[in-house]
Amino acid sequence: MKQNFKKVLLIVPSKIVARGIEAVLGELGEFRVEGILSDLSHASATRLHNMDADVIIIDPVVFDYVSRMNVRARISEYSSAPVIALKTAPMSDEQIRQFDGTISMYDEPVAMVRKLRESLASHEDAPETEGPELSAREKEILVCVAKGMLNKEIADVCNLSIHTVITHRKNITRKTGIKTVAGLTVYALLNNLVDPDSIGL
């Protein structure tokens, strides 16, 4: 009989905490840890991009204090899975709001699974837009494309690898259905993502 479980990716700097969550979820059976990352370095980000996780649990302390406000945006560059914050340190309400849910390392196992289940359900039930919504990073790259920038220039300006820029451009094309630079420029103009003056119109 085939197991029906949700795949979890942990991004947790502590191996002890990561292994504890893995053991707890493994015992309950509904969720299974399929990967553990200790940070979001370039190599880890590549693994995140290539792994088809159903849920991502991240301890925000993997980022410095200032970057913690953009954890969700950073993850959305690589995955559309719901992102759950593992609270191991105090977090402001503003930091918490960016996540699809939160769990604490002090939660009872059954409560942890319930929270994961609720976050996953609310993420799946989120209203669909007319087309798949572009992420903040995709919009940023779309604006660069509309301004006539090449992939290397976009990579330099956005502090990304060229591979990541190309991946974002493929996602933009897939989501919008537009393959040409001219078409993407019109799309950016119609959606007020770019000022006509900034692209020489």
Short note summarizing the structure:
The chain has 201 residues and is α/β, with parallel strands linked by helices. The chain has helices at 15-28, 42-50, 71-76, 93-97, 109-124, 136-146, 151-158, 162-176, 181-190; strands spanning 6-11, 31-37, 55-58, 83-87, 101-104.
Explain what this protein looks like in three dimensions.
This protein is an alpha/beta fold. It folds into two domains: 6-124, Rossmann fold (3-Layer(aba) Sandwich), CATH 3.40.50.2300; 136-199, Arc Repressor Mutant, subunit A. The chain is 47% helix and 13% strand. Strands 2-1-3-4-5 form a five-stranded parallel beta sheet, covered by helices on one side. α6 crosses α8, α6 packs across α9 (181-190) and α7 (151-158) crosses α8. It is elongated and about 60 Å long. It starts with 5 loop residues before the first strand and ends in an 11-residue tail after the last helix. The model has no long low-confidence stretch (mean pLDDT 84).
